[in-house]
């Protein structure tokens, strides 16, 4: 905003505080109103630019501060998980460890069929007339209920209800996940 626009801004406050409202009556008063409007728009632009600079600066500061905190949070959650894993080895029933300041919980998931190649699964389902499991893609949730994990030659594999191997499906190994609540 230049000096002329600053002067225009002072006049705007005066006009708005007058008891009788200002009225545009000719080309000169229209021009005067445009000058006031230009000054206001310029001031608005300045304010927005300053606010954006400050927002960027604050966002940069926030990212820097949170990066340190996130690293520390990850460090402590990992330490808690390692401790809990040791406790679980000695006592398989220690699924939750509670303190006044938080809980460490475990959740065990069973081995389950997992899609590795949906196209191969779809091809298998089509070739074996398993139309109940077809929409535009395999109805994975429904098909998965009828799959079985079997061990063939020492290797775990997935078969359908007819005992046929299903290509494109692998066995997701049993796992334990840890979660921390504060």
Structural features:
alpha+beta; 20% strand; 4 helices; 182 residues; elongated; 3-stranded antiparallel beta sheet; two-stranded antiparallel sheet
Walk me through the structure.
- Helix content is 52%, strand content 20%.
- It is built from four helices and seven strands.
- The strands form three sheets. A three-stranded antiparallel sheet has the order 1-2-7, covered by helices on one side.
- α1 crosses α2 (27-90).
- The two termini are 51 Å apart.
Spans of at least 5 consecutive residues with low confidence: none
**SSE succession:** HHEEEHHEEEE
Beta-strand fraction estimate: 15-25%
Cα Rg: 34 Å
How many DSSP H or I helices?
4
**Overall outline:** elongated
- Write down the oligomeric state: single chain
Spatially, the strands of the biggest sheet line up as 1-2-7
Number of strands: 7
Structural class: alpha+beta
Task: Outline the biggest β-sheet.
Answer: 3 strands, antiparallel
Distance between the termini: 51 Å
Average pLDDT number: 89
Helix content: 40-55%
């Amino acid at each position: 905003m230049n000096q002329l626009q600053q002067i225009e801004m002072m006049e705007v406050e005066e006009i708005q505080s007058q008891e009788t409202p200002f009225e545009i009556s000719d080309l000169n008063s229209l021009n005067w109103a445009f000058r006031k409007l230009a000054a206001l728009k310029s001031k608005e632009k300045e304010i927005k630019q300053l606010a954006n600079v400050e927002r960027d600066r604050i966002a940069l500061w926030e990212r820097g501060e949170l990066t340190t905190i996130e690293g520390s949070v990850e460090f402590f959650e990992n330490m808690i998980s390692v401790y809990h894993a040791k406790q679980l080895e000695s006592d398989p029933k220690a699924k939750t460890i509670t303190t006044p300041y938080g809980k460490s919980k475990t959740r065990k998931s069973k081995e389950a069929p997992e899609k590795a190649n949906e196209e191969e699964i779809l091809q298998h389902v089509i070739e074996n007339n398993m139309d109940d499991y077809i929409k535009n893609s395999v109805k994975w949730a429904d098909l998965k209920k009828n799959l079985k994990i079997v061990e063939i030659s020492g290797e775990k594999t997935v078969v359908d209800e007819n005992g046929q191997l299903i290509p494109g499906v692998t066995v997701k190994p049993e796992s334990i996940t840890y979660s921390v609540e504060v």
